[in-house]
């Protein structure tokens, strides 16, 4: 158990809808990262937050947004969903925003299916 | 930006040794990580290298050459449970001191009896 909690585990929704994925980082971790993993692709970095502030952006679509709250949990909002958004969405946390000796610890992911 | 290359698939026999290679190109290099991921599960951290050389952790070892942009993960005494995808990931310090971790597509290792 990595200590990172993601809910829900599975989500099935229709095209055009909006969903919210939730992540609670490990106790003491200030950084939260969101990754997308499609069937035929590797882990694609979406966005990073550190102590409530956005720190880095990857290949995140404009239809997607995220935030980190004062209690350090994070939410990833996906709107105007398309079939291609079906994927595993992972949240990861680490102790600090930089530093080579701080590996990411991943949650079990949310499997999103858009029909 | 970063570019990470690793073989797509590898097959080895139980009890054998296998080496999974990874090459990377990055600016602001900040460490090389290896993760293991079983199908449909979360990636789990295996090893980390920031300096050149070999890091050994039980049956798993990882090597880094920064001048060559090259790393490998060495798995000894393979067990059936080692069948998984192995992800190479390079850390990069980007603007504003934020660290990004970019993953390769993973090497699917199949261990045969």
SSE map:
The complex is a heterodimer of chains A (115) and B (113).
Chain A lengths: L4 E3 L2 E4 L5 E6 L6 E7 L5 E8 L2 E5 L6 E5 L5 E5 L8 E8 L10 E2 L3 E5 L1
Parallel strand pairs in A: 2-11
Antiparallel strand pairs in A: 1-3, 3-8, 4-5, 4-9, 5-6, 7-8, 9-10, 9-11
Chain B lengths: L1 E4 L3 E5 L4 E9 L2 E9 L6 E6 L3 E5 L2 E6 L4 E6 L8 E10 L5 E5 L3 E6 L1
Parallel strand pairs in B: 2-11
Antiparallel strand pairs in B: 1-3, 3-8, 4-5, 4-9, 6-7, 7-8, 9-10, 9-11
Please give a structural write-up:
The complex is a heterodimer of chains A (115) and B (113). Chain A is mainly beta and 115 residues long. Helix content of chain A is 0%, strand content 50%. In chain A, the strands form 2 sheets. In chain A, strands 2, 4, 5, 6, 9, 10 and 11 form a 7-stranded mixed β-sheet that branches. Chain A has a 4-stranded antiparallel β-sheet with strand order 1-3-8-7, with no helix packed on it. In chain A, a hairpin with a 5-residue loop joins strand 4 and strand 5 (43-50). The N and C termini of chain A lie far apart (31 Å). The mean pLDDT of chain A is 91. Chain B is mainly β and 113 residues long. Helices cover 0% and strands 63% of the residues of chain B. Chain B has no helices and 11 strands. At the A-B interface, strand 5 and strand 10 of A face strand 4, strand 5, strand 9 and strand 10 of B.
């Amino acid at each position: 158990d990595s200590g990172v909690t993601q809910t829900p585990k599975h989500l099935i929704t229709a095209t055009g809808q909006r969903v919210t994925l939730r992540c609670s980082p490990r106790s003491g971790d200030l950084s939260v990262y969101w990754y997308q993993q499609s069937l035929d692709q590797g882990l694609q970095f979406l966005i990073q937050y550190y102590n409530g502030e956005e720190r880095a952006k990857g290949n995140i679509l404009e239809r997607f947004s995220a935030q980190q709250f004062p209690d350090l949990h994070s939410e990833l909002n996906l709107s105007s969903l398309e079939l291609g958004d079906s994927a595993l969405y992972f949240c990861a946390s680490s102790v600090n925003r930089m530093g080579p000796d701080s590996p990411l610890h991943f949650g079990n992911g949310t499997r999103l299916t858009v029909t | 930006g970063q570019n990470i290359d690793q073989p797509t698939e590898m097959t080895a026999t139980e009890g054998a040794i296998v080496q999974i290679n990874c090459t990377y190109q990055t600016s602001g290099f900040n460490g090389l990580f290896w993760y293991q991921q079983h199908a449909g599960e979360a990636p789990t951290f295996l090893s980390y290298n920031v300096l050149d050389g070999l890091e050994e952790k039980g049956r798993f070892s990882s090597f880094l050459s920064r001048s060559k942009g090259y790393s490998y993960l060495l798995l000894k005494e393979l067990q059936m449970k080692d069948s998984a995808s192995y992800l190479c990931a390079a850390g990069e310090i980007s603007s504003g001191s934020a660290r990004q971790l970019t993953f390769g597509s993973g090497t699917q290792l199949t261990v045969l009896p």
